[in-house]
Write a structure and sequence with these properties.
Layout (H helix, E strand, L loop, with lengths): L2 E3 L10 H5 L5 E3 L4 E3 L19 E3 L9 H9 L13 H4 L7 H4 L6
Antiparallel strand pairs: 1-4, 2-3
Amino acid sequence: MAYVIAEPCIDIKDKACVDECPVDCIYEGPRMLYIQPDECVDCDACVPVCPVTAIFSDEDLPGEWKQFAAVNAEWFSDAVTGLGSPGGAAQAGPQDKDHTVVAEWPAVA
């Protein structure tokens, strides 16, 4: 099981979760943050600090946001960012591409 960042993070990117993550597995795209599923240790530290309730275990992801499990995983693929599993968001820095689903999501008013 890994944690997933879903739709409420789009255009918010509070980053309290980034500060709380002990393994540095939360990466930044232009419109939202993404959890690297292979690096996530399922510690739950990020969940209570998220002000918009955007982080869920993949098993508890609400039905309307199920696609975000794939969105988080695919964002690290060669087809999107090519990051793979770099072993830490701090060394990777912010990325200049979002997953297509996120890039095309209607802007939050």
